[in-house]
């Protein structure tokens, strides 16, 4: 269970700054909006990349009519989008945040849907078929020396700027994501990301579902990390309940996670190549990814939405052909992956489009919380499998792939090298899966002991975390998923400035975000 340190509202910013400077808490792992009934607040998960120390703090306000909390976005850049998300869903305004617009919902939406007292049937929110008005001004809450607060207007784009839309219906935004880009000639001056086109509502739905029912929703977040997402939620519930799964389940889950990682990286390769005009490479990636999907389908019954992990184990034992087919696939991919590099990696066009483009510094990667291949391409060793081992990752020998250039080419190479490491991990496990139960006996109605819990796994594109708060009922009080994609999209404005408009496509492709995971 997570021990949470409560910090009074008026001391929050000073205490956060002290933790950042003195304790080197430079990684804001997760920021979760909360409605505790009598109060609203925020839970912060912090980690030091220097010492590895982790801690959880929270702050709250009892003013439900006009809730205000100091912003920490001047300390951690990750807070910029996360605080906007909390404002969007809980109505908490952050003092000192430069951009208090909604992040996902329409600007004319009435109410805050994640609050416990929100009315989903409110007649003031009809089904609107018209486009919302694009607002180019935003409000910043400034603290006056006397302690009062004034609203200051900030301009996002003024009338003299030349602004174009990239998306939401653009194939290279990898989903319905809209970038408004201010251009000077072909160069990007600044960029505004609008994420609100999917509205999964998964976190809210979890509050009215039993624990086994919540599992089905995780596959639909980052659908290229379905096994890993569900692994994280199952592991969080199991740890909270003190359930030990068999070693057989640990092996199966780890192998499935790594197959999923290869599947995701093959799709990353295919789509990036297609974005840059290399269609042959696109077909290579899809041809070989199909082999993994066939393996998944045989054991799980699904190809994209797997529904395989369960609380206490897995849905069914592995198929009799599983071991043989996985070994054959690894031999096949190892023998053919040089073709990927022959056709694309060494290509002069690919090199010119990717090298030195969209550089993200290590400091910015940590500040934004851009984990996964993006963080490791900037020199940040952020792999959850090494930081907080789970499954059987402590029993296998593998390298954490790290590059230091931080550019688009480094982000590409990290993922290509990780395919090789995932195959290495699977090879060490596939012939050694122990005998044992594939599912522990669980009670028909699962209740998680009262408390707060956080568990993370290394997803296909970074740290996927689950924050769970339970009141001891058969349904969770609050579930928050640490999106792997939201930090990646929040970096786009920073790393695109000064680049060409065509570079935005290469940068977005190498960041490798998946949109349903962002708009949860």
TrEMBL record:
Domain of life from the UniProt record: Bacteria
Molecular function via GO: NAD binding; NADH dehydrogenase (quinone) (non-electrogenic) activity; NADH dehydrogenase (ubiquinone) activity; quinone binding
EC number: 7.1.1.-
Segments of this protein annotated with the region NADH dehydrogenase I subunit D: 160-520
Keyword Cell membrane among UniProt keywords: yes
Domain NADH:ubiquinone oxidoreductase 30kDa subunit positions: 6-119
SUPFAM superfamilies: HydB/Nqo4-like, Nqo5-like
Subcellular localization(s) per the UniProt record: Cell inner membrane
Location, primary (coarse class): membrane
Region NADH dehydrogenase I subunit C, annotated ranges: 1-136
InterPro entries associated with the record: NADH_Q_OxRdtase_suD, NADH_quin_OxRdtase_su_C/D-like, NADH_UbQ_OxRdtase_30kDa_su, NDH-1_subunit_CD, NDH1_su_D/H, NiFe-Hase_large
NADH-quinone oxidoreductase subunit D domain sequence ranges: 275-442, 445-520
Membrane topology, as annotated: Peripheral membrane protein
Catalytic activity as recorded in UniProt: a quinone + NADH + 5 H(+)(in) = a quinol + NAD(+) + 4 H(+)(out)
Keywords, sorted A to Z: Cell inner membrane, Cell membrane, Cytoplasm, Membrane, Multifunctional enzyme, NAD, Quinone, Translocase, Transport, Ubiquinone
Gene3D superfamilies named among the record's database cross-references: Cytochrome-c3 Hydrogenase, chain B, NADH:ubiquinone oxidoreductase, 30kDa subunit
Electron transport recorded as keyword: no
GO cellular component, one term: NADH dehydrogenase complex
UniProt xrefs under PANTHER family: NADH DEHYDROGENASE [UBIQUINONE] IRON-SULFUR PROTEIN 2, MITOCHONDRIAL (PTHR11993:SF10), NADH-UBIQUINONE OXIDOREDUCTASE 49 KDA SUBUNIT (PTHR11993)
Functional summary from the UniProt entry: NDH-1 shuttles electrons from NADH, via FMN and iron-sulfur (Fe-S) centers, to quinones in the respiratory chain. The immediate electron acceptor for the enzyme in this species is believed to be ubiquinone. Couples the redox reaction to proton translocation (for every two electrons transferred, four hydrogen ions are translocated across the cytoplasmic membrane), and thus conserves the redox energy in a proton gradient.
Subunit structure: NDH-1 is composed of 13 different subunits. Subunits NuoB, CD, E, F, and G constitute the peripheral sector of the complex.
Family per similarity comment: In the N-terminal section; belongs to the complex I 30 kDa subunit family.
Protein name per the record: NADH-quinone oxidoreductase subunit C/D
